[in-house]
Amino acid sequence: MAIRTSLELSRGIFAENKVKDAVDLFKKLVRQKICEPNEITYATVLNELSKRGHTDKTLSLLRLMEQGSTKPNKKNYSIVVDALCKDRNLDAAIDLLNEMKLKGIPPDIVTYNSVIGGLCKLGHWEKVKTFFSEMVNLNIYPDVRTFNIVIDRLCKEGKVEDGEEVMKHMVGKGVEPDIITYNTIMDGYCLCGQRDIARIVFDSMINKKIEPDIISYNILINGYCKEKKVDEAMQLFCEISHKGSKPNIVTYTTILQGLFEVGRTDDAKNFFDQMLSTGPTPDLYTLLSMVILSTDLLKKLCYSFISWKERENTDIIFYIIIINGL
DNA sequence: AAAAACTAAA
Q1: What is the distance in angstroms measured between the alpha-carbon CA of A46 and the sugar C1' of B1?
Q2: What are the E-state strand segments in A81-135?
Q3: How many Å from the CA of A268 to C1' of B10?
């Protein structure tokens, strides 16, 4: 297991370097006019850069595109707007959105959703309202995703009631909540310690013929574990396979942690064995949390290494060493 | 042929 994990991690590290090299090469080929990629190729590269947090590079690649013969289209701009939003650089994102309008490439629902999401994350609720009005004025109507983004941020800030209000509002506008809306609200209730209401939401979505998915189960299981009601969590766990869903690594990790928190280490061990034989492959986090939770001695040992790691900033190598060592 | 936005454990 440890060796496999190390290998997977190493592959990840090398893949990361490869992407950087690939982008440098890509830019060079474009600049020297050795090749001229189309919009989709550009979009793919922009996405990879955005995913890995190289927001500045997405912007410079977009500018490079503007100078070439393949002009950026709506999706290319939107990817960069989204990257800037994820980077919490809302001023730049909004500038770019306005630039799109000036260039006659009108932003669409996706562009607006990115900006609204970014503004919500920063808690700029007044600006969120402004953008809602702006998009409606342009005949772009908020969809279920737009509302889900807003509801999620409200819930994460502990304002579940406001989230419920937004949900009522969307229904009034003829936009039906989907499974993500319900999951978001459930998680919101769990986050503020109202697991009982989360359970009511869970049951009400079943009544509305929306089948809970594995994420719905994981949210509620996590809520029960936080309350130290591990038996109730276990009962839900058993329901999953009867309802045609399948527990995933999040489900197992959540229950394992719940069992450890209440000191049921034997049950945790059995549950871990059950996962190894019939469940998903544990990820690095599962293994590490098992190790950390296992004994106080190892816990202290790991923590002393973790603070060393933070100084040295070599986290991945560090985890490989710890897991191999153990 | 291939591209963009929303939900769960740490």
Answers
A1: 18
A2: none
A3: 17
Interval A48-67: pLDDT, tens: 999 999 999 999 999 999 99
| Largest interatomic CA distance in chain A | 65
Question: In sequence order, which residues have a C-beta less than 8 Å from that of residue A94 and are 6 or more positions away?
Answer: A115
Evaluate if the CB of A261 falls below 7 Å from strand B: no
Give me the pLDDT at residue A3, please. 38
The nucleotides of chain B lying under 7 Å from a protein CB are: 2-10
Give one DSSP letter per residue of A150-185, joined into a string: HHHHHHHTT-HHHHHHHHHHHHHTT----HHHHHHH
Q: Which of A105, A108, A57 is nearest to A80 (CA)?
A: A57
- Residues lying close to strand B (Cβ under 7 A), chosen from 20-39 of chain A, are 38-39
Candidates A307, A300, A292; CA nearest to A257 is A292
Q: Which nucleotide is nearest to A85 (CA to C1')?
A: B5
Q: A240-255, pLDDT tens digit by residue? A: 999 989 999 999 999 9
Give the pTM: 0.84
Confirm whether any atom of chain B, the nucleic acid strand, is less than 7 Å from CB of A48: no
pLDDT tens for each residue of A182-193: 999 999 999 999
Position A312 pLDDT exceeds 70 = no
Q: Show the tokens assigned to A213.
A: 């998915």
